[in-house]
């Protein structure tokens, strides 16, 4: 028996001891990024989070000052950001900005940051190594017919030198490539972006980056240089067809402008164009899927420094001066964000070492090789799992060779790290060396600041949580991919859609998805069909799959709710999509194909009828498009789409809903979609939820990708948190902990990890979408249905039979944390709510409290047992 809750403020500040004494903005962002360079948005969004150690210390107003412009004091207690509203911003300028917030008692707090605007007009030309003067290189892997026909291109090096007077006060490099680039100024690597400029549909737009290179400039001769690789542009991309040049282009090209400002105010631009020289160096090829080969003997020392004799190099070919597709980057780039040392390294055959990094990642290996003779061939192959005890399992990579090769130059120490490839792997097999001196795995992923923590009393659930995070890291590589290892790595829309709520708890993915939503809209067909993958590429399954294409509506809606940025809501593109489906299905049952139908992908259980699944998503998309129209003040569309949603709901009920809430097909996913998407009356909902629970009790989870994210949330919303916990803790397949018990370090593509080798990824995050419920259910951090950016927090922990859990989320408004313990003494919960938010706290046993921002403790003392 649990008594009444005692509520008090903690004596000391809990989760974040650094909370300031009074209301203070922090975490300032411009366009969702910290101090970005090269902002392209004419009216950028400037946002902030709030912290205060005092309960109820909420904002009432704010003021933004940008350069010489001020918003004036704006009374808005909900504000955590505003778009710049001053005079047009000038290109290539740094703007300092400050936000001031006022609390109710008049106290004010402020913080400062800055951003820089990007390029308006380009002068540079695209340049390349003459493609007809390149010998294709056959990669050293055996038995790959496709490769022996097509070969791979050596990575071109491009350089120019220029004289500069003394007194450079500011130097900015604006740069992009068709392909991948790595730039250097006077021998210094420029920036820390990997795989830049990232992947977009290059037929539609190419992102460019801006780097501050001021410290690298010299008086006198200077060198601006870059290495290029094929990347997604002209390399092996996706799975079909397997030849370079098919998807976007044939060979890589570079564009760059170095803008110099001198202390006398004068300026100068060094740009790609005539006069650049190109040659080749040690990188014989670098391909995302095939791997990379360095022949260290062909290194061209000093090629990126002044004084290098490039007279034997060729003039670069000017390939064009079309700048129309160049746009400012919206996202943070991929970066090297961690390193792992081996947990074991075994000599499995003479000269062959098998290295286990203990964690499945996306990235590559860095290897130091000491005291070798010239010309030794060292090969690094990668795999996620093993065949037997001592062989890499590579069948699931399909045609991704994922093989890196070093041919040594000889000498005391050579460090080999590929620059233009990445692999999905836990194990590396290194052959060609008698001993391994220094080897480590470099973790690569898009830089999305981590915002979540979760821990509970079950170590296996904690491992699951870790696996979900690693799955996110390994699959957020410029675009949200399905998997990082095989010849696929595509931005499949459904995978992204079901995982997004988990991703948003784990990390600040606002900039990452702001970039990707532009890819999604770019990929929309003229008829309105959202695609199934974005960026789009030739040869990959077109448009319109239910649950996949719908991500064009579901993803921006969720981003808006989490980050509060209504610019995510592109009502016109949403309306084009739903009108497209409606045109093909005038009776509002989505049975006519708008593209392929992937059904409830990889569901182990009975198939959900395709029309049920499709029509449920149709309704969801239309209903959310109507909501989006409401938020954007589009009254006509709100009414039109709202009415359409109501008609689809009626059509769904008439066609598929039977007595007692039975949904046609009687499958878990059918019930989940109908319940979660509001397709049933309250009475039908109760019946459907009871039937869903029976099915789950009978056979555990039977959903594929399209139902799995709803499973635990819907069960708990209908009073069956106990069953959701049973599912979470279940260890028989299909289950999450089955994977954990079988050594998973990421989430598998298939519940049980068993399937055709060609379709069996061990790093596929869709089933990891339970992560959302670890935060929102187990720990209990959620927001109320109509709330945006956590203005109305819901704290509703579901302890099940766990004895404790804690979680935190650095939300768009500020830090939210929960930690609870449930033991013989009772239930104790501690929570932090950010300024500007209120919370409803639901305690076990039904007690509900409304609280202000700040820190709170609740204690329920367990009474005497009768
Ligand atoms: C991918 C999935 C994707 C699916 C479409 C697969 O090859 O790996 O994650 O959503 O195709 O059915």
Specify Rg, calculated over alpha carbons.
Answer: 28 Å
Globally, the shape reads globular
Q: How many β-strands, per DSSP?
A: 45
Main sheet record: 10 strands, mixed
- What structural class do helix, strand and pairing data support? alpha+beta
The small-molecule ligands in this entry are: beta-D-glucopyranose
Portion of residues in helices? 10-25%
Helical run tally: 16
The first-to-last residue Cα distance is 9 Å
The residue-averaged pLDDT reads 94
* Poorly predicted ranges: 12-16, 141-149
- Strand percentage lies at 25-35%
Question: Which SSEs are present, and which pair or pack?
Answer:
Blueprint: E1 2-8, E2 24-30, E3 45-51, E4 59-66, E5 69-70, E6 74-75, E7 81-83, E8 94-103, E9 108-116, E10 126-128, H1 145-150, E11 156-164, E12 168-178, E13 180-185, E14 188-189, E15 206-212, E16 220-229, H2 231-234, E17 253-262, E18 267-271, E19 277-280, E20 283-287, E21 291-295, E22 314-315, E23 317-320, E24 326-328, E25 334-340, E26 344-349, E27 352-372, E28 377-383, E29 385-387, E30 391-393, E31 403-407, E32 411-416, E33 423-431, E34 438-446, E35 452-456, H3 459-475, E36 476-477, E37 479-480, H4 493-506, H5 510-522, H6 551-563, H7 571-584, H8 610-631, H9 635-656, H10 668-676, H11 682-699, H12 705-708, H13 711-717, H14 721-729, H15 736-741, H16 771-779, E38 781-783, E39 792-795, E40 804-810, E41 815-823, E42 826-833, E43 838-842, E44 848-851, E45 854-862
Parallel strand pairs: 15-24, 21-31, 39-43
Antiparallel strand pairs: 1-45, 2-3, 3-7, 4-5, 4-6, 4-8, 8-9, 10-23, 11-16, 11-19, 12-15, 12-17, 13-14, 13-16, 17-18, 19-22, 20-21, 25-34, 26-27, 27-32, 27-33, 27-34, 28-31, 28-33, 29-30, 35-40, 36-37, 38-39, 40-41, 41-42, 42-45, 43-44
The structure holds beta-D-glucopyranose.
């Amino acid at each position: 028996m649990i008594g009444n809750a005692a509520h008090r403020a903690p004596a000391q500040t809990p989760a974040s001891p650094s909370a300031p004494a009074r209301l203070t903005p922090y975490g300032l962002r411009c366009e969702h990024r910290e101090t970005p360079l090269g902002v392209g948005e004419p009216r950028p969004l400037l946002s902030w989070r709030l912290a205060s150690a005092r309960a109820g210390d909420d904002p009432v107003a704010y003021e933004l000052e940008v350069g010489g412009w001020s918003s004036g004091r704006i009374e808005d207690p909900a504000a955590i950001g505003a778009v710049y509203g001053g005079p047009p911003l000038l290109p290539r300028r740094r703007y300092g900005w400050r936000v001031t917030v006022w609390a109710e008692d008049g106290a004010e707090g402020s913080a400062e940051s800055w951003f820089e605007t990007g390029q308006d007009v380009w002068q540079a030309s695209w340049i390349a190594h003459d493609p007809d003067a390149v010998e294709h290189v056959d990669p050293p892997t055996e038995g790959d017919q496709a490769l022996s026909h097509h070969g791979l291109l050596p990575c071109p090096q491009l350089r120019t030198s220029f004289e500069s007077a003394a007194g450079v006060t500011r130097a900015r490099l604006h740069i992009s490539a068709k392909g991948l680039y790595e730039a250097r100024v006077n021998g210094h690597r420029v920036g820390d972006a990997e795989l830049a400029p990232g992947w977009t549909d290059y037929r539609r737009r190419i992102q460019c980056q801006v780097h501050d290179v001021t410290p690298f400039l010299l008086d006198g001769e200077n060198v601006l240089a870059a290495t290029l690789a094929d990347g997604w542009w002209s390399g092996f991309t996706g799975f079909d067809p397997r030849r370079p040049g098919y998807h976007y282009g044939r060979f890589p090209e570079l564009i760059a402008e170095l803008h110099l400002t001198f202390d006398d105010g004068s300026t100068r631009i060094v740009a790609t164009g005539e006069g650049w020289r190109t040659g080749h160096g040690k990188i014989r090829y670098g391909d995302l899927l095939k791997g990379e080969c360095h022949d260290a003997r062909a290194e061209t020392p000093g090629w990126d420094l002044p004084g290098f004799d490039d007279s034997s190099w060729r003039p670069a070919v000017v390939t064009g001066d079309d700048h129309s597709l160049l746009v400012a980057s919206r996202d943070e780039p991929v970066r090297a964000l961690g390193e792992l040392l081996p947990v074991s390294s075994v000599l499995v055959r003479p000269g062959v070492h098998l290295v286990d990094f203990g964690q499945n990642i996306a990235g590559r290996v860095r290897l130091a090789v000491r005291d070798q003779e010239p010309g030794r061939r060292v090969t690094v192959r990668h795999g996620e799992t093993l065949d037997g005890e001592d062989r890499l399992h590579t069948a699931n990579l399909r045609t991704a060779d994922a093989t890196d090769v070093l041919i040594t130059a000889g000498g005391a120490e050579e460090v080999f790290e590929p620059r233009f490839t990445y692999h999905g792997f836990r194990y590396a097999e290194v052959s060609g060396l008698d001993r391994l001196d220094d080897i480590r795995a470099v973790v690569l992923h898009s830089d999305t600041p981590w915002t979540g923590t979760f821990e509970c009393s079950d170590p296996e659930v904690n491992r699951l949580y870790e696996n979900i995070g690693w799955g996110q890291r390994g699959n957020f590589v410029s675009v949200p991919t399905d998997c990082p290892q095989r010849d696929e790595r595509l931005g499949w829309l459904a995978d992204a859609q079901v995982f997004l709520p988990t991703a948003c708890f784990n990390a600040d993915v606002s900039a990452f998805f702001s970039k990707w939503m532009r890819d999604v809209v770019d990929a929309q067909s003229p008829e309105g069909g959202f695609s199934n993958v974005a960026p789009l590429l030739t040869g990959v399954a077109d448009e319109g799959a239910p649950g996949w294409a719908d991500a064009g509506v579901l993803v921006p809606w969720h981003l808006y709710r989490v980050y509060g940025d209504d610019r995510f809501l592109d009502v016109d593109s949403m309306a084009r999509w739903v009108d497209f489906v409606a045109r093909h299905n005038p009776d509002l049952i989505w049975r006519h194909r708008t593209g392929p139908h992937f059904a409830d992908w990889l569901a182990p259980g009975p198939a959900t009828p395709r029309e049920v699944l499709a029509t449920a998503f149709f309704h969801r998309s239309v209903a959310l498009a109507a909501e989006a129209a409401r938020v954007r003040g589009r009254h006509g569309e709100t009414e039109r789409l709202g009415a359409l949603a109501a008609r689809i709901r009626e059509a769904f009920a008439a066609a598929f809903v039977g007595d007692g809430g039975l949904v046609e097909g009687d499958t878990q996913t059918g019930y989940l979609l109908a319940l979660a998407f509001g397709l049933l009356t309250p009475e039908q909902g109760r019946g459907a939820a009871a039937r869903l629970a029976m099915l789950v009790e009978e056979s555990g989870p039977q959903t594929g990708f399209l139902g799995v994210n709803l499973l635990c949330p819907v069960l708990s919303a209908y009073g069956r948190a106990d069953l959701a916990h049973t599912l979470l803790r279940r260890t028989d397949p299909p289950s999450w902990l089955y994977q954990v018990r079988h050594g998973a370090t990421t989430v598998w593509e298939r519940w049980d990890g068993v399937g055709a080798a060609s379709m069996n990824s061990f790093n596929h995050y869709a089933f990891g979408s339970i992560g959302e419920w670890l935060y929102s259910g187990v720990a209990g951090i959620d927001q109320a249905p109509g709330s945006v950016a956590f203005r109305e927090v819901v704290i509703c922990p579901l302890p099940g039979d766990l004895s404790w859990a804690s979680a935190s989320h650095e939300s768009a408004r500020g830090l939210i944390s929960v930690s609870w313990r449930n033991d013989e003494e009772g239930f104790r919960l501690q929570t932090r709510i950010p300024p500007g938010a209120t919370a409803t706290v639901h305690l076990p046993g039904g007690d509900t409290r409304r609280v202000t921002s700040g820190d709170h403790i609740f204690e329920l003392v367990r009474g005497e047992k009768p």
